[in-house]
Amino acid sequence: MSSPGSSTSGVAQRPQVWQDRLQEHCRRAQLPAPRYEIVSDRRGKRTAWSCTITVSGQNIMARYWYDGQYVNQAKEDAAEKALQTLQGRANGGGAAGRGAELGAGQQQGRIVGWGR
């Protein structure tokens, strides 16, 4: 049996996610590892979840709030924004690439209208 990171032919590889990319960027730039903080906001009978990352002395908030089952998407959102900020592309085109990176159906946890 192969692990997700192995290079055995015929085994589907785990796509590199924004959290991995941010971790790699910090390693290469000799920055401390990013710290993830999950935050919640009670809204009526539901709770919305988001993420703040502290990296290189900066606190970077995810763009959107998510339903509880999609908390990892909040981490991905914050990691993408943090990486773009660290690379000087804070206003750059992450949104178009994100849909293709995550694949169909993985963005459905975003709570529309709850963005910051």
Count of DSSP E strands?
3
Poorly predicted parts: 1-9, 90-107
- Alpha-beta classification: alpha+beta
Mean pLDDT: 77
User: What is the percentage of strand-forming residues?
Assistant: 15-25%
Strands of the largest sheet, in order across it?
Answer: 1-2-3
| Percent of residues in helices | 25-40%
- Summarize the helix and strand pattern as letters: HEEEHH
Number of helices: 3
Span of the ends, CA to CA: 43 Å
Q: Compute the gyration radius: what is it?
A: 15 Å
Please outline the major beta sheet. 3 strands, antiparallel
Shape: elongated
Lay out the secondary structure.
Layout: H1 18-28, E1 35-43, E2 46-55, E3 58-61, H2 71-86, H3 94-102
Antiparallel strand pairs: 1-2, 2-3
Helix pairs in contact: 1-2
Describe the structure.
With 116 residues, this protein is of the alpha+beta class. It has helices at residues 18-28, 71-86, 94-102, and strands at residues 35-43, 46-55, 58-61. The protein has a three-stranded antiparallel sheet with strand order 1-2-3, covered by helices on one side. The protein is elongated. Mean pLDDT is 77; it is low at 1-9 and 90-107.
